[in-house]
C-alpha cells in the first residue's frame, strides 16, 4: 500500500513538472499567443460588440480634434508595448524610445472593469488620413462609453500640461510620401528655439505693445463672436534681410504657446492644395508664410495673387479659430495694396536696420558692455551715414569677437566706415521705425485724429522713417513723394465715402 501511494506521488510530481514545462515552453513561443488569441475569439463569439469609428478628418477635410486626443491617449497606454503591430521612434531626449500603434494594430484597455479595444486603420487615400476604431461590449456601452471618453480628455489634458512641447510643422511636396504619418500634408518636428520676448533685441515699448495685443487676442473669443468675426489675428513683419523677423516669429509662438505651421510656397501645389494645408491646421496655431513679396512678384510655382488673397481672408480661412497668421516681407511698398489692406493684415511691424540704440542692445546681450569708449564713434558714424548694417551682421561680428569687446566694436566701426558703394539703408538723420496704433478710422483733413487715440512710439527714439530701396535714383524718390501725396489726397476722398479698418502700423 505504501508502495502504491509513493508511486502515485511520483507520477503526480512528474505530471506537474511536465505541465510546468509545457506551460513555460508555450509561454515563450508563438503557440501560447495563438492559443490565447483563439480562446479570446471563441469567447467573443458569445458577446455582442459595438464599434465606433473616429476619423482623422471630416467630410470637409478638417481635422477631428477627438482623433488627436485619442491617438495621444493610445500612445500612453502600457499595453501598447504588447501590441502585435507597434512602431518605435527615438524621443527628443537621448535614450528616449517612443512607442506608437501601427496601421491595423490593436491595443486593449480596461475602464470600470470593462475591456475595450482600439484599432488604428490607415486609409489608402492620404487626403483622408486614418481612423481609430473603438470596440466595446454592447452590455457595457451605456455604463462605460461617455465616462471613458471623458476619462480620455482628462488624461490627455494632463499629458499636454506636463509635456508642453511646441512643434513646428512643414508642408510636404505634392508627390512626397506620407503614408506612415498621422498628418499626410505636414511633417512635424520639436520646436526648439531659445528666442523669446525677453532676449530679442527690440525696443521694450514695442515689445510691450505686441505682447499686449497678443494677450488681448487670447482673451477675445466672445468679443470676436459678438461682432461676427473669425477669432484670428494677422501680422505683417517687413524689413530687410537679417533684421530679426524670423526670430520675432519664434518669440511670438513661444509667448502664445502655439504650434508653428511654416508654409513653403516654393513647393509645387495649386490653390486647392493651399486651402487643404490651411484646413489641416489645428487650433492654437501660428501660420507663417515668409518672403511673401518674393512670391507675389511671380517667383513661385503657380501661386497666383488670387490664391494668396483667398488664403489670407477667404471662406476657407474662416473654417477655424484661435489662429495667428504671420507674413514676412522685405518691402511692402511695391506690392498690391489689396494684399495688406485692413481685414487681411491687422498689424504692421517694421524691422529696421541697426541704429545706435539697437547696437547698444546687441553689445549688452552679446558682449556684456553697457558702456565703452568706442560707442561714441559708432553713434557718430550711424548719424552721419545712416544705418548700414543689419542686426544679424552686427551680431555675427560680436559673436566672432566675443572674447574681446574692443576688437568687436573696432570691427563694426571698420564695417561702417568701409566705402563699398553700398548706400545707407535709410536717409541720414531719420529714424528706423514708428509703431502707430490707430484706434479710430477717421482723420480730419489736417491729418489729426477725430475722437480717437493715436499712439506713436519711436523704435530708435528719433523721427519716423521714410523707407527707400538701395540704389534708388533721385527721380524714383521724387516719384515716391508724388505717390505719397496722391495717397494722402485719396485718403481725404475716402474719408467722405467710408471708414477704414483698425490697424497697428510700424512704418
From TrEMBL:
Keywords: Hydrolase, Magnesium, Membrane, Transmembrane, Transmembrane helix. Residues 231-355 form the AAA+ ATPase domain. The chain crosses the membrane at residues 6-27. InterPro entries: AAA+_ATPase (IPR003593), AAA_N_dom (IPR025753), At3g28540-like_C (IPR058017), ATPase_AAA_core (IPR003959), Mitochondrial_chaperone_BCS1 (IPR050747), P-loop_NTPase (IPR027417). It catalyses: ATP + H2O = ADP + phosphate + H(+). SMART domains: AAA. It comes from the Eukaryota. One of its GO terms (molecular function) is ATP hydrolysis activity. It holds the Pfam family AAA_assoc. One of its GO terms (biological process) is response to stress. Its cofactor is Mg(2+). Belongs to the AAA ATPase family. BCS1 subfamily. This is AAA-ATPase At2g46620-like. It comes from Spinacia oleracea.
Amino acid at each position: 500500500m505504501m508502495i502504491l501511494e509513493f508511486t502515485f506521488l511520483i507520477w503526480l510530481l512528474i505530471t506537474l513538472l511536465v505541465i510546468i514545462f509545457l506551460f513555460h515552453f508555450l509561454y515563450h513561443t508563438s503557440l501560447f499567443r495563438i492559443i490565447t488569441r483563439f480562446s479570446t475569439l471563441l469567447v467573443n463569439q458569445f458577446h455582442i460588440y459595438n464599434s465606433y469609428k473616429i476619423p482623422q478628418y471630416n467630410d470637409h477635410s478638417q481635422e477631428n480634434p477627438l482623433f488627436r486626443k485619442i491617438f495621444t491617449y493610445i500612445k500612453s497606454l502600457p499595453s501598447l508595448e504588447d501590441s502585435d503591430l507597434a512602431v518605435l521612434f527615438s524621443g527628443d531626449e537621448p535614450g528616449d524610445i517612443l512607442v506608437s500603434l501601427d496601421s491595423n494594430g490593436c491595443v486593449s484597455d480596461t475602464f470600470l472593469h470593462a475591456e475595450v479595444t482600439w484599432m488604428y486603420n490607415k486609409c489608402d487615400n492620404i487626403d483622408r488620413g486614418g481612423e481609430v476604431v473603438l470596440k466595446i461590449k454592447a452590455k457595457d456601452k451605456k455604463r462605460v462609453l461617455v465616462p471613458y471618453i471623458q476619462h480620455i480628455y482628462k488624461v490627455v489634458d494632463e499629458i499636454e500640461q506636463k509635456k508642453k512641447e511646441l512643434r513646428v510643422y512643414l508642408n510636404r511636396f505634392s508627390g512626397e510620401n506620407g503614408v506612415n504619418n498621422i498628418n499626410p500634408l505636414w511633417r512635424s518636428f520639436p520646436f526648439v528655439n531659445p528666442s523669446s520676448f525677453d532676449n530679442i533685441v527690440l525696443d521694450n515699448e514695442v515689445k510691450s505693445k505686441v505682447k499686449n495685443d497678443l494677450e488681448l487676442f487670447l482673451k477675445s473669443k466672445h468679443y470676436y463672436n459678438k461682432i461676427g468675426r473669425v477669432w484670428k489675428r494677422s501680422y505683417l513683419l517687413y524689413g530687410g534681410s537679417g533684421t530679426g523677423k524670423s526670430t520675432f516669429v519664434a518669440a511670438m509662438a513661444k509667448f502664445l504657446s502655439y504650434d508653428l505651421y511654416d508654409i513653403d510656397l516654393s513647393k509645387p501645389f495649386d490653390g486647392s492644395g493651399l486651402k487643404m494645408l490651411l484646413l489641416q491646421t489645428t487650433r492654437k496655431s501660428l501660420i507663417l508664410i515668409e518672403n511673401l513679396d518674393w512670391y507675389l512678384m511671380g517667383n513661385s510655382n503657380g501661386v497666383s495673387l488670387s490664391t494668396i488673397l483667398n488664403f489670407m481672408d477667404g471662406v476657407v480661412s474662416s473654417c477655424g479659430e484661435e489662429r495667428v497668421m504671420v507674413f514676412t516681407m522685405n518691402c511692402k511698398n511695391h506690392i498690391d495694396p489689396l494684399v495688406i489692406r485692413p481685414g487681411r493684415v491687422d498689424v504692421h511691424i517694421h524691422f529696421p536696420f541697426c541704429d545706435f540704440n539697437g547696437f547698444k542692445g546687441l553689445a549688452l546681450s552679446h558682449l556684456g558692455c553697457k558702456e565703452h569708449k568706442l560707442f561714441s564713434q559708432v553713434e557718430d558714424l550711424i548719424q552721419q551715414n545712416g544705418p548700414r548694417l543689419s542686426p544679424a551682421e552686427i551680431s555675427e561680428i560680436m559673436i566672432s569677437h566675443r572674447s574681446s569687446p574692443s576688437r568687436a566694436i573696432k570691427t563694426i566701426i571698420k564695417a561702417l566706415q568701409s566705402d563699398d558703394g553700398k548706400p545707407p539703408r535709410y536717409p541720414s538723420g531719420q529714424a528706423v521705425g514708428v509703431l502707430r496704433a490707430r484706434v479710430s478710422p477717421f482723420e480730419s483733413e489736417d491729418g489729426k485724429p477725430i475722437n480717437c487715440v493715436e499712439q506713436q512710439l519711436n523704435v530708435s527714439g528719433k523721427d519716423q522713417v521714410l523707407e527707400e530701396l538701395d540704389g534708388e535714383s533721385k527721380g524714383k524718390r521724387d516719384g515716391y513723394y508724388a505717390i505719397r501725396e496722391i495717397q494722402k489726397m485719396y485718403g481725404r476722398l475716402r474719408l467722405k465715402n467710408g471708414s477704414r479698418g483698425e490697424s497697428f502700423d510700424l512704418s
